[in-house]
Design a protein that fits this description.
This protein has 276 residues and is mainly β. Helices cover 0% and strands 57% of the residues. The strands form two sheets. The protein has a 22-stranded parallel beta sheet that branches. A twelve-stranded parallel beta sheet has the order 2-5-8-11-14-17-20-23-26-28-30-33, with no helix packed on it. 45% of the residues are buried.
């Protein structure tokens, strides 16, 4: 698809329309837009230099992108706008804002993808509840970013080498389980009242394992090792059960009006700090 400037060309699947494509190589000399208002079934394709692949509100939620390579994207890899497609077994790479963006009551299944680059590997925003499972996310500024009353399930992902937090949560209620989070800044929970963190390996993240800021957080069966702060909480309550914490400076760091309950958890009592 050739053009004379970025964004002048668009592939559009109209509402009630369908596109089945297998083994296709879709590319352009400039960035182009790819919009789905109907049904898209993409299998084993390569998509190069799309500004985004957008699933709009009217699109069929049984749409699927499977086993495809989406590369050199512009602003977004895949954008679900009040839509819930299945995005599975893909390689998604670029240097734009978002690898996958679930916006406004979207609940896509995001499964077993390899996502690299981008400012945000995956973002769930405005009441969205995607299932984010078994993905590898690396080299982003934020691995997974959850905000504005979203409630994703984040399960079985490998999140590494983010410039900022591996998982960042703001005013939302995710379930974070069975992930490996390494070489990021850990997990940050902010102004959230029912975050659940279960069966995760959180190690070598530099500053924090888990930082709960004005948030009620439950941490269960986690291994949290080799950070400056294992668990830090500023106000609200944190419950830690059946976990193991081994940090370089503070296993537990409490400030403000923080309340922490620790049970069946191993930590170093000399590395507990309480202020407030």
């Amino acid at each position: 698809m050739n053009g004379t400037a970025d964004g002048l060309r668009t592939i559009t699947i109209q509402q009630w329309g369908s596109l089945y494509t297998t083994g296709s190589n879709i590319t352009g000399n400039y960035y182009y837009n790819f919009r789905n208002y109907g049904y898209l079934n993409m299998q084993n394709c390569t998509v190069n230099k799309a500004n985004f692949i957008c699933f709009h509100d009217s699109s069929d939620d049984s749409s699927v992108i499977n086993n495809s390579t989406i590369k050199n994207t512009g602003s977004y890899g895949i954008y679900a706008d009040h839509a819930s497609p299945t995005i599975i077994n893909n390689t998604i790479s670029g240097s734009g804002s978002y690898g996958i963006y679930a916006y406004y009551y979207s609940s896509p299944d995001i499964i077993n993808n390899n996502i690299s680059g981008y400012s945000y590997g995956i973002r769930a925003y405005r009441y969205s509840s995607p299932t984010i499972s078994d993905n590898s996310i690396s080299g982003s500024n934020y691995g997974i970013y959850v905000d504005y009353s979203s409630s994703p399930t984040i399960r079985g992902n490998n999140i590494s080498n983010s410039g900022n937090y591996g998982i960042y949560v703001d005013s939302s209620s995710p379930r974070i389980e069975n992930n490996t989070i390494k070489s990021n800044r850990g997990i940050y929970i902010r102004y959230s009242y029912s975050a659940t963190i279960i069966n995760n390996i959180i190690e070598g993240n530099g500053q924090y394992g888990v930082y709960a800021y004005y948030s009620t957080t439950n941490i269960v069966n986690c291994t949290i090792t080799n950070q400056t702060y294992g668990i830090r909480t500023d106000s609200q309550s944190v419950t830690v059960e059946n976990s193991s914490i081994s940090s370089t400076s503070y296993d537990y760091y409490l400030s403000g009006s923080a309340y922490l309950k620790s049970s069946n958890t191993s930590f170093n009592k000399s590395r507990v700090y309480v202020s407030g």
